Amino acid sequence: MEKILIVSSSHKSKELLIDIVKSSGNYEVLSVDSGISCREIIKSNNFDLIIINAPLKDDYGENLTKFISKNTNSDLILIIKSNDKNQLHKIEENGIYVMEKPINKFLFMKIINAYIIHRRRYNFILKENEKLKKTISDIKLIDRAKITLVEYLNMSEDESHKYIEKQAMDLRITKVEVAKNILKIYEI
């Protein structure tokens, strides 16, 4: 379940935003009322989306969005008063979506869902990336073991490859485990 954090100093606005978020999908919603509280909670929690209702009692929102951008990979929506457009371009350049008040409930629900769909694809890509990194790491480890067998036992590369495969089959373990065992024996 995706996690969404709402940051709003106004209790009434915070309740309205929570209601809109809950109406747009089955998301875990947390809320805080200041930039300081937001900074604290993101240290120990990962959020898919953070919605900031500016201004906050301790920050307009621009400094907080910069902090979040630098310290998390959460998507951000900053809600500002329509007369606060002077910093709009700077904020959007940092990859933060800016909405003007008053917000359209239907449009806001669509934007939240679009962000969550994007986040799901992003998380899938991250998982695939981690799998590929592990595969590459395993290949490097097996190759190191093959080179070690070539150096210490004068095997050819093909013989070392077949040796590792046979050991894995005979011992019913992975080639990575065989490679680790070889490296334990021959590398100091």
Q: Report the portion of residues in β strands.
A: 5-15%
For the largest beta-sheet, the strand count, sense and barrel status come to: 5 strands, parallel
> What is the approximate shape?
elongated
SS element count, helices? 7
How many individual β-strands? 5
CATH domain fold name of the largest domain: Rossmann fold
CATH architecture of the largest domain: 3-Layer(aba) Sandwich
User: How are the strands of the biggest sheet laid out side by side?
Assistant: 2-1-3-4-5
Q: Average the pLDDT over all residues and give the rounded result.
A: 91
Which class of the largest domain in CATH terms? Alpha Beta
The gyration radius over C-alpha positions equals 26 Å
CATH homology group of the largest domain: Response regulator
Which structural class fits the helix and strand makeup? alpha/beta
Helix and strand string, N-terminal first?
Answer: EHEHEHEHEHHH
Low-pLDDT segments, ≥5 res: none
Report the helical percentage: 55-70%
State the distance separating the first and last CA atoms: 46 Å
What is the number of independent domains?
A: 2
